[in-house]
C-alpha cells in the first residue's frame, strides 16, 4: 500500500509542476491553500476536515458547460492513508480521498437535497462531498483519475450511498460549509470505521467528466492548483480533542 501511495504522489508532484504552469480561468486565491486540518472530536463522535485558502473558500464555482461530456468539476481534496474498506469500498488499490466538489452540469448525490428545494437532482453546484479512490493516470495532465470498473464486474463493492456510476465513488451526504477562507466537512467517525490515526494532505484541483472517449478517464484530474504540504507526502496527522 505504501509503495502505491508513493508512486501516485510522485505522479501528482510532477503533474502539479506541469499543470500549474498552465493558465486556468479557475486558478485564483480561492484555491491557494494556506492550511489544512483534520480534527477528531471524540466527545461528539465526529471528525472535522478543513481547508483554509488565501481567498474565499467555495466562492469560485465552475461555469456550466451545458452537457455532461466535458463538464467541469472543481474540488478541495483530502488524499489520505485510509484503506478503501474503512469508507465502505471493497479492497482495491489506490488512494482514498475525501473530495469536496462543485459541478453545475449534473447531480451525483441522488439521495441528498443539498439546496433544500425538495428536488433531489438539481444541486450539483452546491459544494458536497465524495469518497473516491484515486489512481495514477498519465492520460490527463493532472496525472490522476477516479478509479473505474466495468459495470458487469459483480466483485466490486461500493458503499450503499454510491451514485450508481462505474467508478469507485461514494456520495455520503456529509454536511459541507464555507465561511470566509475556510471550507469544512463533518464526518461521523463510524462512517470511516472509527479511524482517527491516519495521514492526509490537502489539494485543490480542476477535474473534467468524459462520456464520449473510451480512451480517456470518466473523471480525470486536469489541473492541480495547490498542495498543502508542497510535495504531497501526506505529512499531516489527525488532531485529537
Strand element count: 14
Outline the biggest β-sheet.
Answer: 6 strands, antiparallel, barrel
Structural class: mainly beta
Task: Report the sheet-strand fraction.
Answer: 25-35%
What report would you give on this structure?
By secondary structure, this protein is mostly beta strands. It has one helix and 14 strands, in the order αββββββββββββββ. A hairpin with a 2-residue loop joins β8 and β9. Mean pLDDT is 92; it is low at 17-22.
Question: What is the topology?
Answer:
Layout (H helix, E strand, L loop, with lengths): L1 H18 L13 E9 L4 E8 L18 E8 L15 E8 L25 E9 L7 E3 L22 E2 L5 E4 L2 E7 L10 E2 L2 E7 L9 E9 L8 E2 L1 E2 L1
Parallel strand pairs: 1-14
Antiparallel strand pairs: 1-2, 2-9, 3-4, 3-11, 4-5, 5-6, 5-7, 6-12, 8-9, 10-13, 11-12
Keywords:
six-stranded antiparallel barrel; 241 residues; globular; mainly beta; five-stranded mixed β-sheet; 14 strands; signal; 33% strand
Summarize the structure.
The chain is mainly beta and 241 residues long.
Amino acid at each position: 500500500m505504501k509503495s502505491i501511495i508513493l508512486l501516485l504522489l510522485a505522479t501528482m508532484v510532477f503533474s502539479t509542476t506541469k499543470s500549474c504552469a498552465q493558465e486556468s480561468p479557475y486558478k485564483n486565491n480561492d484555491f491557494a491553500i494556506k492550511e489544512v486540518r483534520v480534527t477528531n472530536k471524540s466527545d461528539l463522535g465526529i471528525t472535522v476536515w478543513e481547508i483554509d485558502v488565501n481567498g474565499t473558500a467555495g466562492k469560485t464555482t465552475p461555469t456550466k458547460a451545458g452537457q455532461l461530456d466535458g463538464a467541469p468539476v472543481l474540488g478541495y481534496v483530502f488524499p489520505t492513508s485510509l484503506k478503501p474498506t474503512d469508507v465502505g469500498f471493497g479492497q482495491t488499490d489506490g488512494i482514498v480521498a475525501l473530495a469536496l466538489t462543485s459541478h453545475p452540469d449534473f447531480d451525483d448525490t441522488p439521495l441528498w437535497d443539498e439546496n433544500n428545494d425538495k428536488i433531489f437532482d438539481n444541486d450539483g453546484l452546491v459544494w458536497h462531498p465524495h469518497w473516491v479512490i484515486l489512481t495514477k493516470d498519465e492520460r490527463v495532465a493532472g496525472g490522476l483519475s477516479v478509479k473505474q470498473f466495468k459495470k458487469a464486474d459483480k466483485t466490486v463493492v461500493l458503499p450503499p450511498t454510491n451514485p450508481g456510476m462505474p467508478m469507485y465513488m461514494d456520495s455520503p451526504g456529509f454536511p459541507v460549509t464555507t465561511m470566509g477562507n475556510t471550507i469544512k466537512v463533518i464526518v461521523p467517525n463510524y462512517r470511516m470505521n472509527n479511524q482517527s490515526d491516519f495521514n492526509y494532505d490537502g489539494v485543490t484541483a480542476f477535474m473534467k467528466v468524459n462520456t464520449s472517449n473510451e480512451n480517456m478517464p470518466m473523471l480525470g484530474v486536469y489541473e492541480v492548483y495547490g498542495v498543502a504540504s508542497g510535495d504531497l507526502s501526506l505529512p499531516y496527522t489527525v488532531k485529537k480533542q
